[in-house]
Design brief:
By secondary structure, the chain is α/β, with parallel strands linked by helices. The chain is 48% helix and 16% strand. Helix 1 packs across helix 2 (20-26). The structure holds (2S)-2-hydroxybutanedioic acid.
Length: 348
């Protein structure tokens, strides 16, 4: 009997060394994390997602496999948040503007025009107590808020030159699903059209919409410069992201694995924030070099009149995003509380 036992021990160890596949049978199959997003891999978010994948897989010795699905290849904008809540995708990094349809209006505060005038101001919120509190409120919706990732400041594109508020009158502008962006567009006398990011190129090409607002990196990587004659460097608002996970899935992970993932996300966040400005500056240079889109630099007077037209949106939408939250963002950046006028006041 003993002889048979030692023979089978010998046999199995033989098998183990000869074909590692057998080992996999022995080891746990990797936990698969689907990470869906809507931009290309050549963007701050796309590159950060790939770095997160590399770090998490390396550090977990293959206990997790991160499947990144860029460019809406798995889910489009609206679908991806529903899919996360259903658990058919485990992680996302949607922009702040995508949470409103789920009833999470606070993140639309980030859509307010001219809320931030630099990455430094932004980071006082996203890397400070205000940002941390905003991440925590996602738990009530079955979501874990893990980190903020930067992208950049938005510009307008159109097939007519946009310099003054009057130029926007009657233009159909594609926006993300945010009430703040809806109000911003109407404040310019333009017509807001909510549309999935993946549908923008074709909608601009066919004239379903006249114009678009986004970061240079998104404008360039979605080839918008091929279908828009003008780009106005307005920097009138900001696009950034919240890295999120399905709460049930996240809480079900072994704690050491959660720690590895959290550390990998933290490093990918630093990376995203590090490269964001350069990615956007490089995109403007690349669009200029393509020579198909005229880049419009606004005069100080034109910037002032655009700001004057848009700042009242703060007052208009403070009820929706939360007056206290808005005041705490103003306090964190130390700038706008005095500047954001009641509708009638003049802009300095
Ligand atoms: C958009 O829909 O315009 C952006 O949020 C896309 C993105 O994720 O940057």
């Amino acid at each position: 009997m003993k002889a048979i036992a030692s023979a089978s021990v010998l046999a199995s160890s033989l098998v183990l060394t000869l074909c590692p596949v057998a080992q996999v049978g022995a080891q746990q199959a990797p936990i698969v994390i689907k990470f869906s997003h809507v931009v290309t891999s050549e963007t701050p978010k796309g590159r950060a997602a790939e770095l997160f994948k590399k770090l998490a897989e390396q550090r977990s010795n293959g206990r997790v496999r991160i499947e990144v699905y860029p460019n809406s290849t798995l889910f489009k904008d609206k679908e991806e948040l529903e899919a996360l809540q259903l658990g058919s995708v485990q992680m996302l990094a949607p922009s702040f503007s995508k949470f409103g349809p789920m009833g999470i209006n606070q993140f639309e505060a980030f859509d307010l025009p001219y809320l931030f005038e630099s990455y430094d101001e932004l980071h006082k919120v996203t890397r400070g107590p205000v940002g941390a509190a905003m991440l925590r409120l996602l738990r009530d919706h079955g979501i874990v808020g893990l980190a903020f990732w930067d992208n950049g400041f938005k510009d307008f594109t159109d097939n007519k030159p946009l310099r003054t508020p009057g130029d926007f009158r009657g233009q159909k502008i594609r926006i993300q699903s945010s009430k703040v962006l809806d109000a911003q567009t109407r404040a310019l006398g333009a017509i807001p059209q909510v549309m999935a990011f993946s549908e923008v190129y074709q909608a601009l090409q066919t004239g379903v919409v006249d114009g678009f607002e986004n970061t240079p990196s998104n404008i360039y990587t979605q080839k918008v410069h091929e279908v828009q004659k003008y780009m106005t460097l307005s920097e009138h608002g900001y696009i950034g992201y919240v890295v999120i996970a399905n709460a049930k899935f996240w809480d079900s992970l072994p704690s050491d694995l959660r720690a590895i993932l959290a550390q990998s996300i933290a490093e990918a966040s630093d990376f995203a924030d590090e490269i964001a400005k350069k990615e956007n500056d490089d995109a403007i240079a690349a669009i200029r070099k393509k020579g198909r889109t005229e880049i419009i630099e606004l005069t100080a007077e034109e910037k002032r009149s655009l700001k004057q037209a848009l700042l009242p949106v703060h007052h208009q939408l403070e009820g929706r995003v939360g007056r206290d939250l808005l005041q705490s963002i103003y306090a964190a950046t130390g700038r706008l509380a005095a500047e954001s006028p009641a509708p009638s006041a003049a802009v300095r």
